[in-house]
Amino acid sequence: MKRLTFLVAFLLAAQVCAQEVGRMDELQPQQKADATELKLTGELSTKGNSDFRQLRDLCWQLRRLDLGEARCTDIPDNALHSRHRLEAVVLPRKLRTIGSQAFFACSSLRELTLPEKVESVGSAAFSMCTGLEQLTIEGTPRLGDFAFAHLRSLRRLTLRSAVPPPASPTAFEGIDRTQVEIEVPRDSERLYRKAEGWARLFGHVAASEEVCQPERVLVPMPARLERCEGEALTVNRRWEVEAGPDLANETGHAMRLIAKRIFGQTDAPKPKGRAVLRLDLDAALGHPEAYTLEVDKEGVRIVGGGQAGVFYGLMTFDQLLRGEAETRCCAAIPWLRIEDRPRTEVRELMVDPCRTFVPFDELKAFVPEMARYKLNSLHLHLVDDQAWRIEIKAYPELTAQASKRVGMDDMLRVDSGYYTQDQMRELVELAARYHVQVVPEIEMPGHEVAAIHVFPQLTCHAKEVPIRTTCGVSDELLCPGSEFTYEFLGKVFRELAEVFPSPYVHLGGDEAGNPALDCWTSCPNCQALKRQLGITTTDRSENWRLQEHLFNRVIDTLRTKHGKTPMFWYETDFKRIQPGCVTFAWRHGLTRAALDAAVANDAKIMLCPGEHCYLDYPMAPGDMPEVNWGMPVTSLEATYALDPAWGMGEEFERNNLFGVAGTLWSECINSPERIYYQAYPRAIALAEVGWSHAAVRSWKGFLQRLAPAVRDLQRRGISCSLRYEGAEGFEQR
Ligand code: ACM
Ligand code: ZN
Prior knowledge:
Shape: globular
Number of helices: 21
Strand content: 15-25%
Number of strands: 32
Strand order of the largest sheet: 21-22-27-28-29-30-31-32
Oligomer: single chain
Radius of gyration: 27 Å
CATH class of the largest domain: Alpha Beta
CATH topology of the largest domain: TIM Barrel
Number of domains: 3
Bound molecules: acetamide, zinc ion
Distance between the termini: 48 Å
């Protein structure tokens, strides 16, 4: 009784406190940032900087949202995507459609009622609402794929309609039905039990009969795939893993994979017969990442040129088992032989924990997902104008004073956190098990405001500057004329070299051109350095030469003291590149200039041109992030269309091409789930660009092979953009 009284009092208090407005524009920016309870009653907008985008991105503390009286018939895609603090929402009484992923991962939601007039619930609309305990569906909405997947806490499902709403068979994927009390109108349980989409929830499970069609499901596409004569190998068997020496790590992956795909199905029938998964090494394959995979009546044999090759064979095996992903595992795999090897050496994703911090556990979780598609490098952008995110023992002030700020453009939220060196060691070790290297980046001379904020003597005139809370480029640079700059960078890189065993270190180097470089013109230390170096020009080329001097000194230290290969973002004014360095071609429209410079300077080059590889850009008009600093669109097709050799021929590919990289700058990515949304499915396209040989690539074939990969992502509760031709529900929206 006491609890009930308390609850009533709480609800009343909540009602009294909730701020009531027609639309979001009636609130000041700080009111949006402070709001914990809101009631909106007006006509709600759904496009651009809509009421929903503002609720999601600006009201970061929102716990209760009442839209019951709002004039709103459609809740757009991604409307309140990954709002972890949202505990309660009253949906508009007149609501008709709920967009795809509209409440994805609203993990604190406890109860939800879908009003009677709702006609459709988009795919994954409430997926990963892992705290949702009670769900009531008043009417008969069409429930899309994975609409209510992974509701792990669901205990009560109330269905008011006597006629079962039309539901996708995956609508309630990942729910333990033994934990859920289901209430349906009298006498309609029989109908529900028989209805498509509901049968599973009511206990009827049909086993998969699918025989995997490898040509339709593998991504990236292998170099060679040949079917062999024989009756397909049924997979529901007692699998034994046999492995040659030095494959303990891969054996662990093999057992995990079999447990998840084959034995992880709660309703799997008893296995029939035995099968062997045999793993071996053979250096004669000529490349550590190359592998062969054979399926016959005994089972599966994978041979790798190195451990990485065996691992990639296992990732291919996992996709064969997954098949079309209508269920978690297919019934049988045809006899076949695959011979595979990568086209490019390094296939990378870059994560930016500066603009938005990525909690350590989320960062770790990102690695196994990359590795599924044979991506092999994680580039960590550890410092920028907005934050310093890595512990440096020589300078504890950096993380103490520059890892927390309020604000990222119009989002007035607190963003705080950094990684300890022990955490980074743990990440490196985990990534190594997935054959992913971790490459740290420390920016210089630009994008260093967070460090300059802590140590003003790092910049000219020891200017004091606040941490940046907006996107864009600052005019404050490290001073190349001050010895403290070299002492600072030397200590930072020395500690990084001990933590990150990767042979590469990224030095930034982007966007430190004019006018920012003008900060060096009036600095007495910079002037003295120019005199010392005999630089006499005054046509603005002199500051670029100072930048070259700064880079050369640091590159020399990295090479001679730490044995590291330096990398940097290429700028066309950066005329001379030290041979053997790796440059990144990133600027829209300037790829050819970057490639020519790499060839002329005998450098390696990473292809990440904005028009193909900037995955933080929206994937289609109106896709997240709906509000940004003027980003163009990078469509899935544009990512797929990248030619890693840029038409430069085999000699370039052999001598200069380093790999391909996708960037995930996080100015507009404000939750871990949204990193995945931006990355996928484009990262899969990029993986095929970097791994698969041109002869086996085709856009239409890729789209077909992508569909099961996307279904599998959704089945595993991972968010991804569905704004591409051929995706479920894309045409309708
Ligand atoms: C960059 O996008 N500034 C490398
Ligand atoms: Zn200076």
